[in-house]
Each structure stands twice: as structure tokens, then as C-alpha cells.
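Example record

Each entry pairs one chain with its bound ligand, manganese (II) ion.
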Amino acid sequence: MESPVVIDEEQEKKIILNKYRSLLRAAHLKKNDPDKKLIRKAFDIAVEAHKGVRRKSGEPYILHPIEVAHIVTKDIGLGTTSIVCALLHDVVEDTDMTIKDIEVLFGDKVATIIDGLTKIEKAFDQSEKTSLQAENFRKVILTMADDVRVIIVKIADRLHNMRTLESMRRDKQLKIASETLYIYAPLAHRLGLYNIKSELEDLSLKYKSPTIYNDIEQKLKNTKAVRTRFINQFTLPIKRALDNMNMQYEVKGRPKSVYSIWNKMRNKNIPFEEVYDVFAIRIILDSDLDSEKTDCWKVYSVITDFYRPNPDRLRDWISTPKANGYESLHTTVMSPSGKWVEVQIRSRRMDDIAEKGLAAHWKYKDKTQESALDSWITRVREHLEDPELDAVDFVDDFKLNLFAKEIFVFTPKGDVKSLPHNATALDIAFEIHTELGKHCIGAKVNGKLVPISYQLKSGDQVEIITSKAQLPDPDWLNFVVSARAKAGIKKILKSERKKHEKNGRKILVSELEQRQIFADAENFEKLVEFFRAKNTQDLFYRASTNHLDFKRLDNIKHSKGKIEFNRKKSPKTKTLDELLETFRGNKNASVSLGGSMSQFNYRLASCCNPIPGDDVVGFITGSGEIVIHRMSCPNTVKLMSNYAYRIVKAKWDNQEAISFMSGIKLTGFDRRGLINEMTKIISNDMNVDMRSITFDTNDGLFEGTVMIYVNDTAHLSDLMGKLKAIEGVDKVSRIGRT
Ligand code: MN
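C-alpha cells for the complex follow.
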């Protein structure tokens, strides 16, 4: 559709300057108003930022922000801050300029508004690929916009885009038109911007259903003469009466908008001809603030003297204005031809507010003050949030009072999720997917690492970090708030408990094996007593969830406790001397490790956590136990130099599939998604069970410790190799190595 444009730069410069001058005129600034400089500054920056860029229509991009600024001041009546923001609204999104730059140049108020606009822009952009979450976006706009001006500039932006929709692709036209109808028109309505709301609706219909639109528009044209005659006849007696009363007024007989006619036809399933109030007659009074209400009722009385009113259709928004500030008196009366006619009675001031929204209020006070505008904004904000006022305003279909109890956060893909107030990172993990919640070990919020219990705020971008080894903990129920997360955790806890019990049994067996204790039912019962568990199931569960301190088993035989475990044919009766004798007598004697047939009573040292494959030695303790250390363990060196005669050979036997705990330390440069990648590698390894994981980041550097169960050194170094290969990981080392 792009036609070759012959660009006349001089001509374009003229057009741009003319538009700019017309914007300044619309802003009604005094000759030496310092705000002029500010607007000029914003204009110059926008011109520079969008230099050489063209819209789909071929015209210079800068015309768009100028037009948006024009709408903001002329049609909505806002002041300098909003004009500046409108001029700059696409600068951060489309160019290298940052919010920081804007803040330095224009202060934090303008920067905040531009930031809000940019965020909303991003949310909408990213939505293109995902499903239309219009309901959410409407809420997002409201929650992210700390300043109502964000919404207003956004509406003005959309209005100009709708006015220039012609040059867009058909599918884009449809998307933008639907969005406008669903999101922006109701927002404009909500803010009392009736003219803009009508225009947005009409333009949406024009692109969504051109046939219907053209048909109604044509019919409106065809019936114009009839309508004008009717209005003249209808208003004639009223005008005479008002003239006799010496009232100053204006009568407008405006057809309803194309969209509202179509809406009525569709809702009531009637043809155009039967839409009885195709037009409303409006009587605008030039009354003082003091007498305007009385005058409106006087006019009402005059009208009903001539025509019979429908008692069900009296709307008094003079005594009780609508939440958005709308004031007017509506009545529907029967015309002599038997047609119902709606008459709207209001003062000039009320009419201004009806057309331009609450901003028009300030025309009647001291509007030049920016502080006055601020208090208006506060008022709109209150209107948006006050549930009481909401109830009064029956037209509104969306209930903003709910929003205070909700927050809105973004997924990395830009999807929007709504969550209850005080929701945590874990809540959103469950909101996205149960699997994600189940394995959640933390999150990155706006790029920063946070724990799962971190409380989110509206507008946060959240990336969930998971580990397959992670499983729900009953503690989680103490901080999640969403019903979904709570139910999810409970359900998983139940099924995980079963898995834990199974896994815990394995761990227990492995720990007992290493201590030459029989893993039999009788010993399990004794362990229940020893660890004060409720029953064996509970014992297994606690073993699996790291709630058993197995080291306590190592001291048991010295403590002369009541509990005696059934031990394997164990040479524990041997004394230090007997053991020394055994080894002295046989040069090849060694402690065989890992198998269930070891003839010696040994345990693995907790200082270096030896695993199969490590070079190890045994050290005979005073109590006749052999402690296995890694050759590289600092303690080994110490023992060797002091008690060389008590050091004995030890070697690994062919292993049954028993896992040993080992620790890995990782350091490197932090980046987005890094931890996720690491935990993925670890947990995707079928034979690795992660016991714990801790990560710290500081100034872009991270340091982490992962405790895992592995089979042997080959297994461990394989895993370490894979971790080392991750981009950003600088050092991977085994804990306990010198
Ligand atoms: Mn724009």
C-alpha cells in the first residue's frame, strides 16, 4: 500500500512548524509564559528523536506527537505537563533516549508519566502474539498509571491513531479497532470525555464493520432534512416561552452517534427507522453558577408544559452528578407525532464538563495553576477508586473498587497476571502453572534475585526460577495468599509425602549401611524412638526432607544410651591395638568401602565427604573405628604427620547404587536466567538428587553452593564439567578440596 512519496523537505518543515504553532495557540499560553520554553524544549527533542522516521502513511512521524499534544490540550483542556508528555510519549519507546534522560531534562513528574506510557506500550506490543487479555489490560492501565495523565495521554494517542488508521494493514486495523472499543472508549467514558468516547466508538465501528457504519451514516444523511424540520417544530413553542422569560440559551439538535444508534438497533433488534431517539435535543443555558440549577428546572417545567414526559425517564444528574463529574437534566417527552424525544437541559459550564471531562472544571476556577490541575487529578483518582461513587454511576461496567485488592504483574513473555494483594513470587508461579509453583526456588523480580516469599507489586516483571529437586514445604502455606497456590501446595504435599517416604527409606538405608547398621524393621523401630518420629513413615519422610541428623548415630555407642542397634557382623569389639595388629600382619590389608560386606567398622569423614572414586585412606581412632578421609583432605595431612602408624589403606568396592552426598561451589557473573539454567542441568541428571541450594548475588557476581547426592567422582566431575560450560559460570569447585 506504500506509494512512493516525493519528499519536499522544505514543505514538510513548514507543515511541522504550522502544526506546532497551532498547538501553542490551543494551549492558550500568555505571551511571556515560561511554559512556552518548556514546550519548545520538548518539541525540539521530539523532532530530533523522530528525525527521518515516517508513519505508515508516509508523513513525518513528529506530526503524530504534535497531534496528540493538540488533542490533550484542545479537546481535554490539560496544561503544560501533559503537552510535554504527549510530545515526548514515543521518544523512550522508539529511540535511544532513556527515562533518566527525560528526568534530567524535565523533572521527575514528566519522567514518571513517560515511564507509565512506555510500560503500557510494551504490554500492548507484547500482547500481539498472545491472546487478547483486554480485561486485564484495562486494569493494567489503571493500576500502572499512578498519574491519571498517563491514561489521558494514552487515550489521546489512541484517538490520533484511530483517526489515521486508514494506512494500516487490514488485520492491524481490526486489532486496533477492537482494542479501542473494548479498552479505550470505556476509559474515556469513565473520565467523562464523552466526545472522545463517541469518536473512538464511531471510528472503531467504521473499521470493524464498514458496511454497517456506511449504511447508518448514509441513513443519517438522508434523514437530516426531516430531522431538522422536526426539531424546529418541536422546539418552537419552547423557544417562545424561554424568550418570554428572557433566558439566554442555545438549542442543539444533534443526531446520536453512529455507534450508539447501531448499539440500540442491535440490542433491541430493531431497524434504523425504529430507533426512536436518533437525536437528542440539548438546551444549553447561559446562567450564573448561582442560578444554573434553578434555571434548568425552570426549563424542564416549560418543556413538560408542552409535552408529556415519560416519568420513567427523568434523569437528574444536577442534584447528584455522575462519578465522572457529568451534570445534566434529562427528560424524555412525547412529541405530537407520537415520537419520544430526549431533551437534555444543562448550563454552559455543565456542557463543557460533559464534552471535555472534569478538566473543564478548572476553566471556571483558576486553571492556570498547575496545583489546581493536580487537585483535579487527585479527584479523578478518587473517583476511579471510590466504591461508593461507583454504585451511583450505574453506567459503568467495570468495577474499579476491586482493583485495590488486586495487583498486576508481567511474565517474561509480557503476559499479565492478576493476583490478590500481598501475593508472593510463589503465588505467581502457581498462577502460571502448577509445575512451576511446585519447583519454584526463587524468582527474579525486575532482574533482581528474590526469595519465593517475596511480596510483589503491580507492574513487577517476574521470572520464576525452578529446580526439579525443589518440592513444596508445608511452610509455604504460611505466606502464599492465592487460593490456587494454597490448593496446589496441599495437593502436592500429599502426593510428595508418599514419594518422600519412599526416597527417605533409601537415604536411611544408605546412611545405616555406612555405619554397619542393619536396615531392618527392628532397627527402624529403634530409629523412630531415637529420632522421636511418629512412626516409620514419618521417619522416612524426615530422612528425605533433611530433618534427621545422622551424625548423632556416630556417637551413640559412646553415649551408652538405652538404644542398641542390630549391627552387622562387626569387628567393633576390636580395639585399636587389635586393629593395628591386623594391618601390620598383612601388607595388602585394606578397608573395603561401600560394599555391604566390609569386615571393618568404618565411617566416611564429614570434613571431606569422600565419594567412590576418590583417593582415600583410613584412620584408626582410639575407639577402634576407622574414619575414611579423602587423600586431599587437610585433616589427612595432619593425621599422617602425627599418627602415620594409624593410617591404613582403604579402597572402594564395586558399588551398589548408593548415593553419596557431595557439595559444589559455583562462582561467576550473574545474568538473567543463569540460575534457572544451572538448576536445570543438575536436576535433569537422572541420578542426581539435590539436597539444598543457596545462591547469593552481589554487584553482578554470584556465589552458590549446591549439595547433591552422586554415585562417584566420575559422576561428579561430569556434572561439574557441564556446569562449568554454562555461559557466565566462572569457577566450579568441589567443597572440601584444598
Ligand atoms: Mn503514539
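Residues 129-134, 362-373, 383-404 have pLDDT under 50 and may be disordered.
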